[in-house]
Amino acid sequence: MTRTVVITGSTRGIGIGMANAFLARGCSVMISGRTKEDVDRATAVLRQQYPRQNISGYPCDVQDPGQVESLWRKAVSDFEHVDVWINNAGVSGDQQVISESPPAQAESIVKTNLLGVIYGSQVAARGMIEQGHGSIYNMEGMGSDGRMHEGLVLYGMTKYGVCYFTRGLAKEISNSPIIVGSIRPGMVVTDLIIRQYEGRPEEWKRAKRIFNIIADRVEVVAPGLVDQVLKNNRNGVHLSRSTGWRMLFRLIAQPFSHRDLFEHETSS
């Protein structure tokens, strides 16, 4: 039976990268993003490479529980069942200290990164318990382990909350037919990161040197994470690509490395 995967926030970045990898492994994928235009663009790109019957798209703002419920119903209507649900949608906002962050930005970060994960998990858990199987994965990120980064405290706070929420949900559903886990992709070069440095070329120049040591491209990270998702049958796992040994090796090799993740960058 073909596995069906729903990924929120999958019109760009790590989301569409994972969608691509799932499709390459014969899965069916429901693409989702905030706007119909983004969803149509992403599905059109994927349909150039994969069977049309394996790809569907539906716009969904994860801040709205009604839209999240509609996303589930659309996936079941198109593919009959949902085997994997990934709460990936997230926003970081502008890199600002808390005292200068506009209330609207703080609200958007919390609603998308925390409430979006809660709503998605609730909808998927109810549907999967009813159908008798399924797995839910929540995307963690900077801050999940408690480390802080000035200017991204609000974002990190929400990811710390996602970590706690996922552990609690995994415990609550431990006697059900579904499993819950988290995905820790490590530092991935996406427009979410690059946008934080718009208009700050000197800071971007310094940041790129660090990213070239600790980060990876989406197309490198996504396939390994997808393989772990498809193989996993344990509740409460943390799926991760980054390892301490890999980072240590890169730090040691850095003076001799010509690694450039931004070689095709046209502007900063």
What's this, in brief?
This protein is an alpha/beta fold and 268 residues long. 49% of the residues lie in helices and 13% in strands.
Number of helices: 9
Shape: globular
- The helix content, as a percent range, equals 40-55%
Q: Determine the structural class based on helices, strands and strand pairing.
A: alpha/beta
Question: Strands of the largest sheet, in order across it?
Answer: 3-2-1-4-5-6-9
In the CATH classification, which architecture applies? 3-Layer(aba) Sandwich
Segments where pLDDT lies below 50 for 5+ residues? 245-253
Tell me the number of structural domains.
1
Mean model confidence by pLDDT: 87
Largest sheet: 7 strands, parallel
Distance between the termini: 45 Å
CATH superfamily: NAD(P)-binding Rossmann-like Domain
Task: Kindly provide the radius of gyration, computed on alpha-carbon positions and rounded to a whole number of angstroms.
Answer: 18 Å
